[in-house]
Amino acid sequence: MSRAGGEGTAPGSRPRVAATTVPAFDQMTVTVRPGSDVVARMPGVLLVARSADTHEGDRSLRAVLNLLEASREGGIRAPGYRLSRALRRLIEDGAAPSDLALVAATDDGLTVVLAGAGALAVSERGWRLTCESAMVLVREVDWPPAPLLLNLGQPGCEIGEGMPDSRLARSFDLRAGVVPGSGAILASPPPPHITTPTGTVALDSDRLPAPSRDGGSLSASPFPPRRFDRIHGIGPTGRRRPALPRGVAGLESAEAVSRARVRGYRCRDGHLNDPRTLFCAICGIRMAESTGVFVEGPRPPLGLLVFDNGASFSLDENYLLGREPDVDERVRAGQLRPLVLFDTSGVISRRHAEIRLEDWDVLLVDCGSANGTLVAEREATVWSALVPGQPIRMLPSMQVRIGERSFVFESLHGAP
Amino acid sequence: MTASEAELIGGRSTTEHPVPAHIADYQVQRALGYGNSGRVYLARPPRRLGLAEEFVAVKLFNGPCADSAYERGVEELRAVSALDSPYLAKVYEAGLAGDSFFYAMHYVVLGSLSAPGRPLSQTEVLLAVSHAASAAHALHEAGIAHAAIKPSNVLIGARSAALSDLGLGRSLRPGLTMTGVATSGTVEYVDPSVLRGDSPSRSSEVWALGATLHRAVAGVGLYGELSDSEPLVAIRGVMSANPTLARNLPQDITAIVQACLDSPDRRIPTAGELALRITDLAQVREGIVSGG
User: Fold this and answer.
1) B270 and A246: CB-CB below 8 Å?
2) What is the mean pLDDT for each group of 10 consecutive residues in chain B (292 residues)?
């Protein structure tokens, strides 16, 4: 989660670049990337749209260009909101090109409209916005601090790629009009300064968020989140849940029914215990006072995994530990519970180790991880690596190390 | 940053962690608090939310969050929001910033019960816990357990208190018994039965409310001061010892805390009843109800 340049950044002192973008938009240069689709620039707006060689395609392209034309004729310098509303309607009516990407100036930033394969990217910052499965995506964004690319979904394209010559490319600039192309780059003219009413503000990269190096787990960009959902005022989609039962029966009491069944002795108070133990794991009373009848019942949790950072997990299910345990089919099928381990060392495998409950035992297996799973008995300082695929029985207070993370098995049952 | 803000979610210094300039399109002003499950920041909300408020509190969870977990989290937050209780902190939006789950909620200036912005009278503390209990009851009636009731999650508003920070840990990471750091900041408020693997229930939440009331009035925890640096030691401490009520706790409050920690069959059965008992006590103390 660490991020270069984060410390010492005082957001309040950041130049209000956004407020200066209304005059700036039309001072930006637009470089068109060669291709057979359509690029259009009008005051305050830049569009890339799919051109289809059909009557239908021609008509839908015309409809969008008409919108831009109308806003130009209206002399609106910040047509963002108006255009995005109108364009959204057009898209929802199926009257717009299948794929398009548009940015337009608003009073204090940009509005982005994406449909189909339309994409917006700020390669220098590693930002990319697409509408994924949605029909249309409309976003308000802050003015980006680096060249912004619009295209129709060629992922991974660098901004300079495909340009005839970088030196020459810098002198290209589409000021207004409609031309063929596959994408367009909106950039501040060199040198990279934006004129403000009070003078010139350099887009000082020290003051702007840097891309996160850990694959974007903490988005450092001023872009809207990848997914977002309003909470307040929106009801849940699921069925209304029944009230919690009175007393100790909890949320997941239904789960207990599906728990594996084990055989053991009940203590005087009815708690099912490992037949090997002398004291009840729940109430601590001597099992000698038990009923002495070997019975079967749902398996109680066998203990806790207590992590180095204090998070603790109940051993009531089998777990798959790793960086991305969700890649495992058994996790997706709900047979294994995922336990995501995140660290910065990069030595944890996607599927690293498995914890299996068998009768009253807790087993640990290394899933053939790249860097191994280390264990040490309680208090011991000698670590030994597990043989991949070979389960070991975890003893109470056993320590386990995976990459930079470690945890301890706190047993409730078994030997104290 | 004031102490109350530092403790909003668990009370560790934020100085060791760089503060991002943005969380998605929220402009971060500064950190409010740091806990194990995540961090809370004071931020300016983006215009797309259309909020009148200048600031919101944004809670950003640690680590990546799968889409399926994200959807469970959203569903859970919406279910809570639909209750529209005045005693539940209002959550505006949830989202994924990069791969991390976050949500934006109403920002309360007066801090939390763990470190209020100004000294609170005992009656004010009683009313705050009573409001938190009412909120918990509303959740329970809707089939939801909070699972992280503690003083730092009882926010002090101008007129009433609000319970915040629904324990989403279980939605996001099944099997998790405790989301926070296993220190005095969290573990002393967890009903030992939950540590043993029981799922949160009305009964375990009454326990947590009792522990919260105890800490807020007596100024100490039920297990004294637990290790801050060694989670395992703190957990073992809680699991091997019995909670002990502080001697400086007034007698009438002692009776209520006792009734929250009692064995489940004798414990106050619902958070709603606990709320009533605390309100009654506060009123008797203020002489609003004469004779009782």
Assistant:
1) yes
2) 32 53 89 74 90 90 78 88 90 89 89 87 95 95 87 88 77 52 64 80 95 94 79 78 92 96 93 96 78 42
CATH topology of domain A303-411: Tumour Suppressor Smad4 (2.60.200)
> Which domain, by its residues, includes B63?
3-106
Whether residue A210 contacts residue A9, with contact meaning beta carbons closer than 8 Å, is answered with no
CB pairs under 8 A between A and B: 254
Q: Which of A231, A257, A316, A409 to mutate to test the interface with B (most CBs of B within 10 A)?
A: A231
Contact call for residues A90 and A63 (beta carbons, < 8 A): yes
pTM over 0.90: no
Strands (E) located in chain B:
22-23, 26-34, 38-44, 56-61, 91-97, 100-106, 111-112, 115-116, 154-156, 161-163, 176-178
Integer-rounded Cα radius of gyration of chain A:
30
Q: Above 50 in pLDDT, residue A16?
A: no
Q: Please enumerate in sequence order all residues whose Cβ is within 8 A of that of A358, keeping only pairs 6 or more positions apart, or say none.
A: none
CA pair distance B10, B17, nearest whole angstrom: 15
Residue A33 dihedral angles phi and psi, to the nearest 5°:
-90, 135
Pick the CATH number of A17-207 from 3.60.40, 3.30.460, 3.40.50, 3.40.30: 3.60.40
Q: Are strands B91-97 and B56-61 parallel, antiparallel or unpaired?
A: unpaired
- Residue corresponding to tokens 């929250």: B260
Tokens 């069959």 identify what position? B265
Rounded to whole angstroms, the Cα distance separating B184 from B58 reads 24
